[in-house]
Amino acid sequence: MAVGKIREKFIIAGIEEYSRRLRPYLKLEIREGTEEKIPRHPSPGQVERILAIEGRSLLNLLPSTAYVVALDREGQMFSSEELAKWLGELVLRGYNQIAFLIGGTLGLSPEVLARAHFKLSFSRFTFPHQLMRLLLLEQLYRACKIQRGEPYHW
């Protein structure tokens, strides 16, 4: 689940490609929440309001039984192999729905972060939230390949 719609054609093409590649491994559903317009120099109150609106939108999309993973720069980092192992352990523990949440330009609201079972970081870098969707799908595909012992080459 992510805030906003993807506009860039090259990102859409990448998302479509990795969605296609993931089909043999898992059921993938991408849900898009509300993305609020951000003023050029938002006040702290405006930032709080925007985060709250986007956060409620994401929370409303969540299946009630999902294990919730918030993508957050302050979260835990994994190697691709560690991510594959961690995801496999979640499945063994009985989680058949894992919801990854990607915030908008301002990130995720405190309410969303509090709802998350786990916070995952891809890097201490800041990535555009639209590109983050593509990066997440690529890493999920890589994790599936690793779990099955299949080669992953370009």
TrEMBL record:
Cross-referenced SUPFAM superfamilies: alpha/beta knot
Locations listed in the record: Cytoplasm
Protein residues bound to S-adenosyl-L-methionine: 71, 103
Molecular-function annotations in GO: rRNA (pseudouridine-N3-)-methyltransferase activity
Keyword terms: Cytoplasm, Methyltransferase, rRNA processing, S-adenosyl-L-methionine, Transferase
Positions of transmembrane segments: none
Aminoacyl-tRNA synthetase listed as a keyword: no
Catalytic activity: pseudouridine(1915) in 23S rRNA + S-adenosyl-L-methionine = N(3)-methylpseudouridine(1915) in 23S rRNA + S-adenosyl-L-homocysteine + H(+)
One GO cellular component term: cytoplasm
Pfam families the record matches: SPOUT_MTase (PF02590)
The family this protein is said to belong to: Belongs to the RNA methyltransferase RlmH family.
Cited function: Specifically methylates the pseudouridine at position 1915 (m3Psi1915) in 23S rRNA.
Assembly notes: Homodimer.
Alphabetical list of NCBIfam families matching this protein: PRK00103.1-3
Listed name of the protein: Ribosomal RNA large subunit methyltransferase H
Species of the source: Thermanaeromonas toyohensis ToBE
